[in-house]
Write a structure and sequence with these properties.
This protein has 17 helices and 20 strands. The chain has 497 residues and is an alpha/beta fold. It folds into two domains: 188 residues, no CATH class; 191 residues, Vaccinia Virus protein VP39 (Rossmann fold). Helix 8 packs across helix 9 and helix 8 crosses helix 16. The longest helix is centred in the N-terminal third of the chain and has 22 residues.
Length: 497
């Protein structure tokens, strides 16, 4: 129920705490906008938004708990240290709620449910008739592993895959090739030992493929090379150590596994290095803000967890330092200036304010505060780095009626079920976000490259463009000529510097 509370606090109580499939409706706005005058289009959109808001207002409360009982303000870091099961009667920022749901060492999604699909060997793509034949093979293997997991575990585990694993070793080789090309092209850089930092290495497959490729193709560079893998998960860190020592007669002795969160990093790396982050930032927690319809002032979201386990979202004027710094950095961008898609035009807001029961806040916007913090860490502690980052730029089945919204999903009876809210039981749901790569590039440049003397700008490219530049495509071509390295993961992009 949406109400205006005392002290400028806006409450939004959510009914949806369990998974449900998104309802899709045909999008007719684009076609109508071509023939509808601007003023009537604003009126139509305002009325449509008003109807959605009224539906939200008339929903009944989801909890019978007493809202007057004081709740403890906590963070994700506090929960990781103090709680072994999801806490109740607490309040936290949205990013802390999401971060705790994903990363809590006792009950978080990544410590409890997530497994990475990893074929025992790389695929011989020339044996497949076409891409469909390749996908069918992956699907069968995927189902077999899921059945095995269900047979031996009381809790169903969620299995997910990455291009690093599906396209190994050639995907990792392409990343290695990009690094080598950049390294050899810079005369000042190639006089120094090659240093690589990787964040969130999963099973360690990408690390192994990069090292294998450089050892085979560039033994002189490899002999002076150092590879550092920063891994938050103790379990994965142990697996990465065992993998690099187990799979080779001569293990890679130039590897350093660092078991800590990148957000706890406090050592300045004052030498040139490459920083690799593949399929990691989509799980970086976001905050939620809404804008006052009259003033445009942003409000930050909190999640209250009641003693009966239900959730409530409420809003206060922005006071959190990280949210404030992100909004300031974003608002400082020029040519062009950034405009939030969550804040409609003044005409739209004026029309909508004249309707009865009109809301006082805009629709939610998820803002990438942890990705912003990551950029600040790179700029402060890795001042001479070059970035190789890849992730999703678009996703299906995101939370409806919100800007920059995540996919929230869980596995049920062998199927992935998307949800319409992030207010879900911690640890049982994957929560991952699309990345606005052009906005990320501009903020990254502002935070990481303002004092750099080189004139080379960071750039964004698609998965296909990166593969065309760096991949050995003859090795990933099927008999029909289709190439999964080029055709798969079309919703991925790279940020390179």
């Amino acid at each position: 129920m949406v109400t205006q509370a005392s002290a400028g606090r806006t409450m939004v109580r959510s009914l949806a705490t369990r998974s449900s499939k998104n309802k899709h409706r045909p999008d007719t706005e684009g076609a109508r906008a071509k023939t509808t005058p601007a003023s009537s289009e604003h009126e139509r959109r305002a009325f449509k938004g008003y109807i959605e808001s009224v539906r939200e207002i008339i929903r009944l409360p989801a909890t019978t708990a007493d809202p007057n009982i004081p709740s403890k303000r906590v963070t994700a870091e506090y929960c990781a240290e103090r709680y072994t099961k999801p806490p109740r009667n607490v309040t936290m920022l949205t990013r802390d709620f999401i971060g705790d749901s994903l990363y809590n060492p006792s009950y978080g999604y990544f410590s409890k449910q997530a497994l990475i699909f990893s074929p025992k060997q790389g695929y011989d793509f020339a044996r497949f008739r076409d891409s469909a034949d390749f996908l069918n093979t992956i699907g069968r293997q995927y189902e077999e592993i899921e059945r095995e997991l269900d047979d031996i575990r009381s809790i169903p585990r969620q299995l997910w895959h990455t291009p690093t694993e599906i396209l190994k070793p050639w995907y990792g080789y392409s990343v290695a090739q990009h690094i080598i090309r950049q390294y050899k092209a810079d005369r000042a850089l190639n006089k120094l030992p090659l240093t690589v930092y990787e964040m969130g290495g999963g099973n360690g497959t990408l690390m192994m493929n990069i090292l294998d490729h450089i050892r085979e193709r560039e033994p002189e560079i490899y002999s002076r090379m150092e590879y550092n893998l920063v891994e938050i998960s103790p379990k994965l860190a142990k697996q990465q150590v065992s993998q690099q020592s187990r799979k080779h007669v001569t293990p890679h002795a130039n590897v350093n596994i660092i078991n800590k969160s990148i957000f706890d990093w406090n050592t300045i790396v004052d030498r040139p290095c490459f920083f690799v982050a593949m399929e990691v930032i989509d799980n970086f927690a976001h905050d939620v803000i809404r804008y006052d319809y009259d003033t445009g002032e942003p409000y930050q979201a909190f999640v209250r967890v009641y003693d009966d386990g239900e959730f409530e979202e409420y809003y206060e004027p922005v006071s959190d330092a990280l949210i404030r710094d992100y909004l300031h950095a974003r608002n400082s961008l020029t040519s062009p200036r950034h405009k939030s898609a969550a804040l409609p035009s003044a005409l739209y807001r004026r029309i909508r304010s004249q309707l009865p029961l009109a809301p006082n806040l805009s629709k939610p916007e998820f803002i990438p505060t942890k990705a912003f913090e990551f950029c600040k860490i790179l700029g402060r502690f890795f001042p001479l780095h070059r970035l190789v980052l890849s992730d999703f730029y678009k996703l299906p089945d995101t939370i409806p009626r919100a800007v920059g919204a995540p996919v929230v999903q869980t596995r049920f009876n062998g199927s992935m079920v998307p949800c319409e809210t992030y207010l879900v039981q911690p640890g049982w749901f994957d929560i991952f976000f699309p990345t606005d790569f052009e906005l990320l590039r501009r903020i990254y440049d502002a935070k990481c490259r303002p004092l750099r003397t080189d004139t080379t700008e960071s750039r964004v490219c698609t998965q296909r463009e990166f593969a065309l530049e760096n991949a050995a495509l003859a090795h990933t071509r099927t008999r029909s000529g289709e190439n999964p390295m080029l055709d798969f993961y079309e919703n991925n992009k790279f940020l390179l510097s």
